[in-house]
Amino acid sequence: MIRLEDVCKVFAGAQGPVEAVKHVHLTIERGEIFGIIGFSGAGKSTLLRCINLLERPTSGSVLFDDVDLTQLSSSEVRAVRRRIGMIFQQFNLFSSRTVFGNVAFPFAGRGLTKEAIAARVRELLELVGLSGREGDYPSQLSGGQKQRVAIARALASEPEVLLCDEATSALDPQTTQSILQLLRELNRKLGLTIVLITHEMQVIKEICHRVAVMENGAVVEQGDVFSVFANPQQSVTRNFMEMTSHVAGFRRLLNEKSPLLELKPGQCILSLRYLERNVCSALVSYLSRTYGVDLNIIFGNVEMIDGHPLGGLIVIAEGKEKSIRECVDYLETIHVGVEVLLNA
Amino acid sequence: MLDLLVEYFPYTMKSLPMLWRSTVETLQMTLWSGSISFVLGLALGVLLIVTRRGGLVENRLAYEVLDKTINLFRSIPFIILLFCLLPLTRLISGTAIGVEGSIVPLVFGTVPFLARQMESALSEVSPGLVEAAQSMGCGRLDIICRVYLRESIPAIARGVTIALISLIGLTAMAGAVGAGGLGNFAYVYGQQRSRMDIIYSTVIVLVAIVTVIQLLGSLVARISKH
Ligand SMILES: Nc1ncnc2c1ncn2[C@@H]1O[C@H](COP(=O)(O)OP(=O)(O)OP(=O)(O)O)[C@@H](O)[C@H]1O
Ligand SMILES: [Mg+2]
Questions:
Q1: What is the mean pLDDT of residues A146-171?
Q2: Cβ atoms within 10 A of the Cβ of A320, count?
Q3: Residues A97 and A229 in one domain
């Protein structure tokens, strides 16, 4: 539905040109939730804004239903923008207008009667769970409610795609959850295609089907969420993984030679990473029964993505050296990544 | 009460009709030149905002020319501007005295100041709002009217209030050199004849006018701000 081909964006910065987006190729399918993750300054916003031409790419093309938007006249671009909604981190509601006025904003000059507009606005507010707040001004709403109004406004022209620029970054974790829930519902109910950018791993894990990882203006990795995070190929991706797990904290203890990690003879510390979708969670008890190795879990970070466990465990294994080796071999045959972190 | 007034404002009480007429003239001058200046000043403010770097219709040359012209006019003291504009005033108004003759110089004196006020009012509109409107498919004119102007009504009201008050100051100055109004009244009937009470009474009337403008301005700013 959306295809970016070799998109580059160069800004004229104070200290010479800044390449904000470099040779990006992306395809976004109709009906999916596509995430773009990257650290601050990676070029995510710029890339997203290239999709509706708020930012004109320096080179490359942006295809929307096989029409190259960069070749359209400005009035044609405006028509296409009505098919692409957008929401922002700072909500960007019109503070001089009520909730009703904000949601009705895109209807002006479309030849609709007052009654038709009022009915549509009510419908949209119901969709985002804000019925009855028509008369409030944005200053009277919480962050989550503001974002709901912004979503209703973005959906007013019945777009096929919704672009979300850090839509939950200004919200607390609970409100973030409820907005993500709403986006997922809209995706299911209306078949709305969603492109969202974020620097929060949690957001990607929560609702995205596919993900692209950006670093220094380039997309360094993309694919379905499980594969990308189960087998991160790039160090940025691994950084994102570790940030949301406790593994980083554990590695720090290890580096500091913490007394917490003193081992008795016959013990060693293993890290187990689930790489494929087929791992069952009864792994630990299976290993102790079969190989006579005691596994003591000291760190665990296993999450369900697409119904499969993703993440890993750090365990202290205790047993005969031979049994531990057999154990490791077995794990490798079932595609669990094993690493011996410390051996007594 | 009346006795008290007659005692402290003897000459004023004798020329009350004149004071009334002068007040009306001052209000006329303020209203006419204020309205014309508002339209021109707002238009220039909008032009500055849209042509500036990163604006809707970015245009370095237009911005620089406007910016420098406004600075030029702002740096000319009003009394000198009055003299400079005499030929132009006669050409446009047919006369250089009275209320009619004062409009052209008052507009020239107010527009540059008002344009700056409007520029700063409009620049308070967050770029995010403009972007949101663009993402909804709005054109430039739409964005100017429905985002820039609409969103900055409170700030515009504040700017207009300040400009109107300074305009009243200008009308008094124009009055002293032939435009009529309270400035003329205070100068000709008060200062030149050493009747201080006439000068004091014009001050009282001017303070009253300024207070009313200030109150109205604050009211508009308050009810339009949410
Ligand atoms: N209008 C601009 N002019 C010049 N440089 C810009 C402009 N917009 C963005 N940049 C630069 O482009 C790079 C990418 O910026 P961008 O806003 O796309 O990053 P981001 O990934 O969205 O970051 P964040 O998570 O902080 O929002 C940055 O180095 C930024 O300084
Ligand atoms: Mg950004």
A1: 96
A2: 12
A3: yes
In-domain check, residue A239: no
Residue A287 belongs to domain spanning: 245-343
Domain membership flag for residue A238: no
Class of B15-223 per CATH? mainly alpha
**Closest Cα in chain B, distance from residue A222 (Å):** 26
Give ipTM to 2 decimals. 0.89
A167 Cα to the center of ligand 1, angstroms: 17
Together in a domain, A10 and A67: yes
Residue A237 CB less than 6 A away from ligand 1: no
Q: pLDDT tens digit string along A62-92?
A: 999 999 999 999 999 999 999 999 999 999 9
What is the chain B residue with the closest CA to A92? Answer: B129
Residues of B in contact with A90 (CB under 8 A): 126, 128
Size of chain B in residues: 226
Q: In what order do the strands lie in the sheet with A193-198?
A: A84-88, A161-165, A193-198, A33-38, A210-215, A218-224
Q: Which two tokens stand for residue A7?
A: 């998109």
Can you tell me whether residue A65 is helix, strand or coil? coil
Is ligand 1 within 6 A of the CB of residue A42? yes
Which of A176, A199, A233 terminates a domain? The answer is A233
The residue whose CA is least distant from atom 22 of ligand 1 is A45
Q: Are residues A211 and A70 in the same domain?
A: yes
